[in-house]
Amino acid sequence: MREVLADLLRWWSAGETVGMATVTGTFRSAPRPPGAAMLVGPDGTAVGSVSGGCVEGAVYELAQSVVASGVPVPQRYGVSDDDAFSVGLTCGGIIDVFVEPVSRTGFPDFGPLAASIQSGEPVALATVTAGRPDQVGRHLVVWTTDVAGSLGSARLDDAVGDDARGLLASGRTATLTYGPDGERRGEGLSVFVASFAPAPRMLVFGAIDFAAAVARIGSFLGYRVTVCDARPVFATARRFPDADEVIVDWPHRYLRAQVEAGALDGRTVICVLTHDPKFDVPVLVDALRLPVAYVGAMGSRATHDDRLARLREAGLTGAELDRLASPIGLDLGARTPEETAVSIAAEIVARRWDGAGRPLSHTDGAIHHTHPVADRVSASNPASG
């Protein structure tokens, strides 16, 4: 929903009814992830995408029908359908889509939800996508300490609220299954929980020309990018226009402050580009002991060997050193700062999704990996065991 939020809020605020289609499940090579959304506005405008173009025409017509009837509809599109080619889903994937009318009357708590998403406050939206007719389409907005709306009963709200906070803490979006009144080991009621956590952090240490390119591609990938260097002459906002913030501080001191502030999480990526031991060794000692997604360090093979020796002397274990991506990036033959940034970004993506970094033309099986490495857990209700 995040990518269509501005348009949805504008129509909602004007008292209009909008048809919203949300991807709630994907199988095999589906092109868009759960949470991707498409709107059909009151003027017939289409905003967003649920399939990268594959089934947008069919979803558009369904959304118009849902607005007219006022009744939300779950729909599956895929190659198993007799009319798969007629709707254009020829990629081999299957997607579950939930189409619902959104208005001030039907979803009065959308305003606070939108405000939290826009401000970066962690919030989750739970929507009943399958169940009794009086339950389907109900919403519960979940914050870390509060809720708004209701899914139909206090017991169900309590169960979904607890589970949604667990998903929100890890930035995960998922469909959960319950009994009709929130029984965790029950069946018959499906709730799609979309988590809107703040953007993940990318910390770039070393205010060099390569850092500017890494900041640019990090921002493109959706990270909140911080460039940090102890040298004020180099660490300036003018040199790093794509960074969200430029900090003048010793890297290890800034990293420790961020840890103490609770500003990092398991999605954080750290790129150490200084290739100067007085800067990179202290920050790597701390970074490699943190439960973050990625820690990479720039340097030649000789620099890498020297760095490992210094890190061992500083007390890092073999397991901790194994987490270090060094020399940083995938082997793309990169030379320029921009090419190097692409290789670094490619390695970050590969590690996140457990990709092999090989050409897809040389591999078999699914193109898209189902879950991030950190989220490689059962798709069932996480609280049900």
Automatic annotation (TrEMBL):
Q: Where are the bilayer-spanning segments?
A: none
InterPro entries found in the cross-reference section: MoCofactor_Util/Proc, XdhC_CoxI, XdhC_Rossmann_dom
Region annotation (Disordered) maps to 360-385
Q: Which residues form the XdhC- CoxI domain?
A: 11-78, 117-179
Q: Could you tell me which residue ranges the XdhC Rossmann domain spans?
A: 202-348
To which species is this protein native? Nakamurella multipartita (strain ATCC 700099 / DSM 44233 / CIP 104796 / JCM 9543 / NBRC 105858 / Y-104) (Microsphaera multipartita)
Query: What is the official name of this protein in its record?
Result: Xanthine dehydrogenase
A Pfam family per the record: XdhC_CoxI
